[in-house]
Amino acid sequence: MPTVRAEPYEFVFQPEHVALVIVDMQRDFVDPGGFGEALGNDVSLLRKAVAPTARVLDAARKAGILIIHTREGHRPDLADLPPSKKARGRLATGIGDPGPMGRILVQGEYGHDIIDDLRPAAGEPVVDKPGKGAFYATALDAILHSRDIRQLIVCGVTTEVCVNTTVREANDRGYDCLVLADCVASYFPEFQRVALEMIKAQGGIFGWVGNSADLLPTLAEAKRVAA
Ligand code: TIU
Q: In principle, which of 6, 16, 20, 215 could form an S-S bond with 60, CB 3.0–4.6 Å?
């Protein structure tokens, strides 16, 4: 079976039971001129994850494994936006307000959508989520169950917020998660480091941490075996 060097120990996966989950690679978080940058963040820290994630996405497509994309955001009427989330940060321009790339984190707006480099292909499920975790108030668990998926390879942003929350949700639901350190990113270098430590500590309390360079050959092999 494909085996990936990882911490705390190797990650062994079955191609037919593994999915690639790319978390919230949206313009408003990742692109210059988006919401994230408007909040004062250095988006170049997030952009570092784009190229390696694109390589993993390409390899996953060629290997024929299930690919899921997620987007954080809300209905245009904001009926699914908790008042607490709207109020948090006391922002002059916050979720639902007109921002540099359309209404901030509102479905259908330019800034809410996934960056061009990682655009979903036809047939790849896109899961819209109102929270930080991709399981809360979404069909993700049902989608994974229906495809008999038991393991997740996780990329996306930000490492300590939506990636960590999603991995924790997945772990409690019985999924094994491999987080690719170079395919996840944070606006805060210290949080990037510690968020990955938290996942793999205590024997992999939430999952595994690896990197794309070690995964890519195994995806190519997975394809060869399946062909
Ligand atoms: N996707 C995601 O992580 N949403 C956030 O709001 N992240 C922050 O780091 N703020």
A: 20
CA of 88 to the centre of ligand 1 (A): 13
CA of 208 to the centre of ligand 1 (A): 21
The tokens for 39 are: 């909040």
72: nearest Cα among 121, 39, 111, 123: 111
pTM, two decimals, is 0.98
| Residues forming the active site | 24, 129, 162
Tens digits of per-residue pLDDT, 71-87? 999 999 999 999 999 99
pLDDT computed for residue 227 by the predictor: 62
Read off the pLDDT of residues 114-164 as tens digits, 9 standing for 90 and up.
999 999 999 999 999 999 999 999 999 999 999 999 999 999 999 999 999
Select from 21, 22, 23, 24 the residue to mutate for testing ligand 1; criterion: most ligand atoms less than 8 Å from CB: 24
